[in-house]
Amino acid sequence: MAKIAILGYGTVGSGVAEVIDTNRSLIEKRIKDTLEVKYILDLREFPGDPNEDKVVHDVNVILEDPEISIICETMGGNEPAYTFSKKALQAGKSVCTSNKELVANHGAELIALAEKNKCNYLFEASVGGGIPIIRPMNSALTAERVVEISGILNGTTNYILTKMEREGARFEDALKEAQDKGYAERNPEADVEGYDACRKIAILSSLMSGKTVDFKQIYTEGITAVTPADFSYAAKLNMTIKLLAMAKEKEDGYLAAVAPYMITKENPLAGVNDVFNAVFVKGNTLGDSMYYGRGAGKLPTASAVVGDVVECARNFGEHLPCLWEEENVSLKDFSSAKGRFFVRVNKVDEAKANELFGSVEKIYLENYPEEFGFMSGEMTEAEFEQKKAQLSGFVSRIRLKD
Amino acid sequence: MAKIAILGYGTVGSGVAEVIDTNRSLIEKRIKDTLEVKYILDLREFPGDPNEDKVVHDVNVILEDPEISIICETMGGNEPAYTFSKKALQAGKSVCTSNKELVANHGAELIALAEKNKCNYLFEASVGGGIPIIRPMNSALTAERVVEISGILNGTTNYILTKMEREGARFEDALKEAQDKGYAERNPEADVEGYDACRKIAILSSLMSGKTVDFKQIYTEGITAVTPADFSYAAKLNMTIKLLAMAKEKEDGYLAAVAPYMITKENPLAGVNDVFNAVFVKGNTLGDSMYYGRGAGKLPTASAVVGDVVECARNFGEHLPCLWEEENVSLKDFSSAKGRFFVRVNKVDEAKANELFGSVEKIYLENYPEEFGFMSGEMTEAEFEQKKAQLSGFVSRIRLKD
Asked: Is residue A193 situated within a structural domain?
């Protein structure tokens, strides 16, 4: 019998118990064993909950129980999750987590610790919720040199941007609706400023490079400055705006960024709406591939955690390969990144814009009579900033996805 | 050192050698071993080819060489691939295949044989080319009860339908262009009649049910009857037409079909164009997910084969779980399947159509003045056929994806 513990009985943790209950017979067939949730660690009590008798308040009860072979860490945050995970792995107990922050901060170290102790540190649920992306990268795309990952990795911001596109809503109003519906937190900073997507692309780009991408080095820009006017221009161009988290292998190193991008409607990411997430992966022989699904939510995320539990149960005493070393990748300076920009400028500066950006097609919208927009040619971020500084009538810019 | 053989040095087989050469250092890092293509089995010689000295004409050279632990079967067709695969597995050599026909015909038997001989029969490349779908189903979506799979599984027909949608082309002309570009074979029957997609959905629905879905029992309808007029109606309805291969778990059994469907532009499959493939998977706790990529082509397909080689090399002497038993699933009779239909009828029969289908909104197109179209309510296939028989002015029908 496989006995497991759940650390943190919040949304995802209670979802783990629910997914196991719902699909128990199928799961047990797949692991060729029975599966029991023996403990739930939480500070709270859960009177009336079907699992109330499993709740413990001392993690050592779990760590010291030799029957427990797998631990689901669904607490979130760095501590005490980090300490608990380390102790579990040191005791040879596999850890399956949805904790993107901890994985982004200490993934390589915890994987190495798992390898040393012949167990596993699995984190399918930490990126893209229910979308299988970690395991495809680790065990399916293994003939590939992955050269680009770009994803819609945050459901809250995608919901807001979809709302803005479809209804012409302002950011503030779309955010409020997302909060009312429970898609956005009361303090929405981690989502709308791109911090959440940044942790996730740090994880994916670490797997891509095999080394550690420090999320603090990733250029990160949120969606708070995106306006209905931007969407009006995008519509005119048969494009839309998405918060993309990207990592690319360039000839001279890796580049990573989180920012709103204008993308054509032909891009498969353009059709990813509402709270859905998608990860686009380009390999050197595979070409383009994409993985799409519910990027968050209780059951989808829990399903990914339980999928990891199945992998651990099928591979007791064996460490599954995951190439992610502790050594840091040095990212290329984002100011050297080349790209094109959609730029909005006040008409007073039209001559100057012509001088700086050359002959570009201009777009004029009836609703915004004081300004115009255009797509720039290719230039580095630094070059763009330098031109922008010379435009007193500069309104805004959004990067164009190549 | 992992030594492998390639059976069949055609498009995919030579791609396998090329992918290994291209990404050798990464692949060897992932398997923690060196990897060598020792033999290539083919009837032909390949003078001037970098691998010409590896070509053998007798499969026994490979089967009897104890150094060979993994065989890539990229011959296609049932025989001699079936006999060779069986002999290889009996000798404890893992087989990685792109051969959908053989997998659809004998998948369960070959998996059982692999399990018995502590090796693997892997077939990621048999469905969706380079798209990881088999491994996600076998080792990621393992907490799920998969209740629906629907996919665009044939690149040739998707190319043709995309062409028809975008350019108003007739089927015959779009097919000819696909043939000229090498996307369709001179004898296109297997693609355009849906037989290829049928084999692939048989494989996926077998993995979904854990038993064998006999492809011969799957209702299969190709795209040869789809016309520019159908696309005109679809455009009017903000929909498009795709050849879908579907399998669903119903309360009273499984249902499977291959047929052209009208789908809304909101459906993520609607944005899958040209030769791209996509597989949509719905799980009972995960909800919707989708896997997208190049469904065919030399290198994408070869990449999937080599990904399987990596799995085998990482798991020598160990059988990876794949729940697919030989016992047949009895599919529900397709005539009992419920759905809605887009119907075109000659105006002479308008009164009769009203009588049979009730108050439905009719669509009239200027270019087709003699007829009208409408979306029916929900009914079984049998009920529809019965109504259709009473319409002397019946023109055509396309199923609507729910």
From this structure: yes
